[in-house]
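The protein record quoted in full:

***
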Amino acid sequence: MLHVITSLDLKKLADSLYDKLYQCWDNPFDSPTVIFPDAKTEQWFRFYVLKENKTNVLMNLNCDRLDSFLFKTLKDGDEQRLTVNILRDFLILKLSSKISENIFYFQTLDSPEVETYLQVENGINQNHLYDFAQQMAELFIEYENTRNKTFFNTLPKWQKKLYDDVTDININGVQYNSIPQLFNKNTYFNFNSKLPVYIFGFSGMGQIYRNILKDFAKQYDLYVFLQTTDTDAKNNALLKSWSKFGYENYTLWSNESENIISEKPKDSLLHKIQNYILTDKSNTERLSVDSSLSITAAPTKIREIECLHTKVCNLLKTDSVSLSDILVLAPDIQEYRVAINQIFDAVDSKNNQYPYIPYNIVDFSAKNSLTVVILETI
C-alpha cells in the first residue's frame, strides 16, 4: 500500500520517518530499507537522529539509492545494469564497425551531420567518436529513465535507428538492461522482506520511476515522505508558484489526503517581518517580541563582536542548536577580522571571560592572502 506523508518542516518528516522505523524494526539483523536521493541526505538524517538523542542510532539501517534498489528488485537472473559508460563503449564499437569493406556503420545512419563530424580522410576521428558516443549514451539513458514510449517516435530517424540498434546489449551471454527495460520485461518484484520500504528526501522524480514504485506499492508497504510548500500562499506570485510545484509533486503520488503532517511551525517575529517585506505589505499591529530577532547598539566593533560572542554562547546552551547551524553575515567581514580574532581566539581562563568557540572566516579577499603576496613578490 502507498502512504504519502507530507510536511512543510523537513525535521518533522525526519521525526515521522524515525517513528515509523522504530515501530517496525524488531530484529536488528533484519532492517527496513530507506531510499535516500544521495549520501548527503542520508548523512543528514543519521546526524539528526544522533543530535536529537534518539534511543536507536540506526547503526544497521539498510540505506539504498533509488536506481540500485529498483534494479535489485526487478532483475531476474544475471542481468547487469545498463550504465552510461557501458553504453558509450558499445556505441564506440557499433559506430566504428564496418558494414562492408569501405563503409562504416555510422555512414548508414543517413545523417550528413554525423558523417561530417566523425569522418576524416583516413577513417574516423577518434576524439570526435568518443565525444559523440558519450553524448549519445547520456541522452539514451535519459530517454530510458524519463521518457515514455511515444517520445521515441519524435526522434530524428538516424537517432531512432541508432537507439534501436544499441539499447539491446548482450555481451558473452550477459544481458545489459535499463530499469524501465526490466520493468517492461518482468512481471513481479524480487523483494523478500516483509518490512515496509521508505523513501525520504526526494524533491522530484521521473514519472517512469514513480509508476514503477506505485506498482511496487500494490504488493508491499511503501512510505513516501515529501516536503511541500504552503498551498495557501496566494498573495505572492513567487510563493504561489513554489506552492503549486509542491502540491503537484504531492498529487502525482496520491490524489488522496492521507497521512499528512499539516502542523505549521510557530510564526516568529523575524519571519513575519520577512513576509511583510516580501509581500510589500504595511503593518499597524504591534508584533510580539521573541528571540528570533534582536537589535543591539554598540559603540565599537569590539563591542559588537563581544555581543555576538555572548549570543552564540547562549544559543549553544540550548539542545536544539549546534555550531554547524550558526552563520554570521556582515556587509564587509574584513572590517571585523581583528575584533573576531581577538574575541573568538581567546582561551578560557580565570582572567578571561570569553570561552573559546571554533570558527571560520570564509570571505577574505586575495589582498589578505599571504600566498598571493608571495606570488606577486616573486
